[in-house]
Design goal:
heterodimer; A: alpha+beta; Ubiquitin-like (UB roll); DNA polymerase, domain 1; 2 domains; 5-stranded mixed beta sheet; about 35% helix; about 15% strand; B: Aldehyde Oxidoreductase, domain 4; Aldehyde Oxidoreductase, domain 4; 3 domains; 19 helices
């Protein structure tokens, strides 16, 4: 099997994997970074969202061979101590119910706010529309993104 | 999601646990109280403190820090936060000094380790408070012995025992002695007006771990040497495995083993991706699906059942036939809802390691005890040798009351003799459901002299069915001649509890029908409900629910929503329901955008007794309402010759952010004991929106998913 050098959360890793293995499973099963979640496997739910060179991306659809030397950030690397504004806002608003989709929600929100630091209400709703929360904590997700934008 | 009575038995043996009391040593260099100040420079690693077991629920460290075990599964309903709050309140410790841990399944220490029927808090309210209060009294007694004073001269304040001579001892200083004392009986509980933790907004105890992606869920659970398993199951309910060819599957990089068990084939691999690919490479032949039913046939059969002799009376008051025969008018409508999968975000998965000596299980399950017993039965093991660790659960909604996937993991580990993590893909999850049953309600009303004199409801469904208790919910007791009948259609398709079982659509049908009666009588729908409830007050002895409390939420919701006085272009719909021992009234608001109705806001009034954690409670209510709207609008699983037709979120629509309305929640101020919150806000919302849509469009939606009507509207418009 081919070998790949990955930069994940500012650390270099060497992994041996099938070229088609999605980054999601590389992170979870090979690198023990289980914060990135498996939801649907077809890019529909957003639970597996990570940053690839700062861009929110669905890791379940991304073969390891396509990553190259792009810098990968996962929920574990968003901050050292939960100090990222989106994490702080998530805690302040007490967003989660079951919590399973939240890593993907937070990764989508943090990349979005990086691009658009003062979004309108409609822009927030549209940016978060791709992430499913089966517990339907959508109103708190929206509130937390708006709060993070102000931090 | 019915549960049995889960009281916690109290006896000396379970309460006192002396193991671990011999290790001592005070933390030196700082005190807990300094460390817990907001500006503290001392970082506390709470998990590494020197804790001493006090009882099955409580450990206290030398420095007074407390660990509280939460016994019930956490599926997102918030009990891992709210149940320890009950103990901490009566133990009288500051919440900031509490570390919460999830308890494993342990039938010797705990009873009723179940997440179902929204009963966790209701059934734990007294037992967990007694646990905390009893521990507090024992700590006081130990301090009193040390001081040589009578316990009645001592009191506690935030984890410190004090006496009338102004002496002080922290809980940590007397925990060793206290744990050995006689367990006092009939300890006094706090007066609710003295609560310091119950009734306060407390954040989710796992929040820091959730937002930083720490391993918490079943899918995150790993042990050394573990292999991943994915199973191939029959594509249609009722099909059998005839033969399979695993040549290609075995060639997939990472696949370590392939074998048949029952009508399934397990693929084991060193990682999940390889196991999924191995399964895809299997070539299987299945028995004929010719005789298996499709949704069109279910639909027809359920309609035919209404006029069959299979209908059985569930409740009958007065004489419905006479009431109908002598009525001025009888109105009758039929309401229909489809099969629904649960769609938990964390797909079904479980860890199992079966060895000759014991069985280790870990994962997301709402019924740990029943599931451990099932595994013990299957493997012919003593239940004492089965250990089950509970993980945090990525959604339950009733699906994880059934432990088929945990049993399957144990079966695979037993055959392979390896530690195994069984993983369902989303497709496996949606195709391997215990679905909300497809159901129809035909309801008729007899009207005489402009009054409702008779009410007749017939239910036909696959699987679960209305029972005596649910047949006695509103409007039972409100109408002299009242009859509920039910008939079931047998099917190979497995059905099971789905958030607010039966009520999730029964409430929609009945609360829509109440509005249809109001229309017929040319009466305000809120006034009609209040009038009916006046009658129920006289039949109270016969009802498990309180007409007064239902009137209370109706009035509160109507007041907050400004019922009957909405702004121009905003159309309102009302609904109210009692379930899971709680009362919920809702007003939905709908506007028209491009001639299509859009739900913009829901006002909600809830009477669930004392609200233990308002922050979590509000989250549950909002979630239930939005979940209910989403499934009423979009949810539908169809079958073609027994085969599920939607296998992933590209063909199965769940509600998303842009479809989410605002929700305003109001709790009735109450001193009643707390009742269910995870389910009761969902049942009323289907009718609240259908009634609002009727007001907005003039069209009555009686069949879910409602999206079908809107697609019709689009066709007409374009």
């Amino acid at each position: 099997m081919p070998t790949y050098n990955l930069n994940v959360n500012k650390k270099n890793h060497t992994v041996e994997a099938d070229e088609n293995m999605p980054l999601l499973w590389v992170l979870r099963d090979l690198l023990d970074l289980v914060g990135t979640k498996f939801g649907c496997g077809i890019g529909q739910c957003g639970a597996c969202t990570i940053h690839l060179d700062g861009v929110a991306s669905r890791s379940c659809l991304m073969p390891i061979s396509s990553v190259g030397d792009a810098k990968i950030t996962t929920i574990e690397g968003l901050s050292e101590d939960n100090s990222h504004p989106v994490q702080k806002a998530w805690k302040e608003v007490d967003v989660p119910q079951c919590g399973y989709c939240q890593a993907g929600q937070i990764m989508t929100a943090s990349a979005f706010l990086e691009d658009n630091p003062s979004p309108s209400k409609e822009e927030v709703r549209s940016a978060m529309h791709g992430n499913i929360c089966r517990c339907s904590a959508y109103n708190r997700i929206e509130e937390a993104v708006n709060l993070a934008a102000k931090m | 999601m019915e549960t049995t009575n889960n009281t916690i038995s109290f006896n000396r043996r379970s309460f006192i646990k002396t193991v671990g009391l011999s290790t001592g040593g005070l933390m030196i260099g700082f005190t807990l109280f300094e460390a817990c100040k907001p500006d503290s420079k001392v970082l506390l690693d709470l998990e590494t403190l020197n804790y001493k077991d006090f009882n099955a629920f409580i450990k206290i460290a030398d420095n007074g820090m407390v660990t509280i075990y939460s016994k019930n599964p956490e599926i997102g309903q918030g009990v891992k936060t709210s149940m320890p709050m009950l103990i901490a309140e009566e133990l009288d410790v500051p919440w900031e000094h509490v570390l919460v841990k999830q308890a494993d399944l342990d039938t010797t220490k705990y009873k009723g380790q179940v997440a179902g029927g929204s009963q966790s808090i209701r059934s734990s309210w007294m037992p967990l408070r007694q646990t905390g209060a009893t521990a507090r009294q024992m700590l006081i007694n130990a301090a009193a012995i040390k001081w040589g004073v009578d316990p009645s001269e001592c009191y506690t304040e935030e984890g410190i025992i004090k006496n009338s001579r102004n002496e002080k001892l922290s809980y940590g200083a007397v925990v060793s002695e206290a744990a050995l004392l006689e367990v006092p009986e009939n300890v006094k509980l706090k007066d609710p007006k003295d609560f310091k933790i119950i009734g306060k907004d407390i954040k989710n105890v796992d929040i820091d771990k959730i937002i930083s992606g720490k391993p918490l869920f079943g899918l995150d659970y790993k042990v050394e040497g573990m292999v991943y398993a994915v199973s191939l199951r029959p594509p249609a309910f009722g099909q059998k495995l005839v033969s399979f060819d695993d040549t290609e599957a075995r060639n997939v990089n990472g696949v370590t083993d392939v074998f048949q068990f029952g009508d399934k084939v397990a693929v084991l691999a060193t990682n999940t991706w390889a196991a999924i690919n191995g399964k895809k490479a299997l070539i299987a032949e299945w028995s004929s699906d010719e005789k298996l039913m499709s949704t069109e046939e279910h639909d027809l059969e359920l309609t035919n059942l209404f006029d069959s002799d299979k209908l059985k009376a569930v409740r009958s008051d007065g004489n419905i036939d006479r009431a109908k025969n002598s009525a001025d008018k009888v109105i009758e409508y039929t309401y229909e809802a489809p099969f629904l999968p649960h769609s938990c975000m964390e797909p079904m998965n479980f860890f199992a390691h079966v060895t000759d000596a014991k069985v280790e299980l870990a994962g997301p399950i709402q019924t740990p005890e029943g599931t451990a017993r099932q595994v013990a039965g299957l493997l012919k093991r003593d239940i004492e040798t089965v250990h089950l660790a509970l993980t945090r659960i990525g959604g339950g909604f009733g699906r994880r009351l059934i432990g088929d996937y945990a049993v399957e993991a144990a079966e695979i580990s037993n055959i392979s003799k390896k530690p195994v993590k069984l993983v369902y893909t989303r497709e496996d999850d949606m195709a391997g459901g215990f679905y909300r049953p497809i159901v129809k309600y035909k309801i008729s009303a007899a009207i005489k002299n402009s009054k409702l004199v008779g009410y007749h409801l017939k239910e036909t469904a696959v699987g679960s069915s209305i029972n005596k208790s649910r047949a006695s919910y509103f409007p039972a007791g409100c109408i002299d001649n009242y009859k509920v009948e039910a008939a079931q259609l047998p099917s190979e398709i497995t059905t099971g509890p789905w958030r607010a079982p039966v009520c999730n659509f029964l409430a929609t049908a009945e609360q829509t029908f109440i509005d249809e009666i109001a229309e017929e009588l040319n009466q305000d729908p809120v006034k009609l409900r209040l009038e009916l409830l006046e009658k129920a007050k006289k039949n109270k002895a016969d009802l498990e629910w309180s007409p007064e409390r239902m009137i209370g939420v109706i009035k509160l919701a109507a007041e907050k929503a400004n019922w009957g006085k909405s702004k121009e272009g905003v159309y309102q719909g009302f609904s109210v329901y009692y379930s899971h021992n709680s009362y919920v009234a809702e007003v939905a608001e709908v506007v028209l955008k491009d001639n299509k109705p859009v739900v913009t806001k829901v006002y909600c009034a809830v009477d669930c007794g004392i609200v233990v954690n308002p922050l979590g409670a509000k989250n549950q209510i909002e979630g239930g309402i939005i979940d209910g709207i989403g499934h009423a609008m979009y949810g539908e699983m169809r079958f073609l010759k027994g085969k599920p037709q939607s296998l992933n979120y590209d063909s199965y629509r769940l509600i998303r952010m842009m479809e989410t309305p605002l929700v305003e929640t109001y709790f009735v101020d109450s001193n009643e004991d707390p009742t269910g919150l995870g389910e009761p806000s969902l049942p009323p919302v289907g009718a609240a929106i259908s009634n609002a849509i009727k007001a907005a469009t003039g069209q009555r939606y009686r069949i879910q998913p409602y999206l079908k009507y809107m697609e019709e509207v689009i066709e007409v418009v374009s």
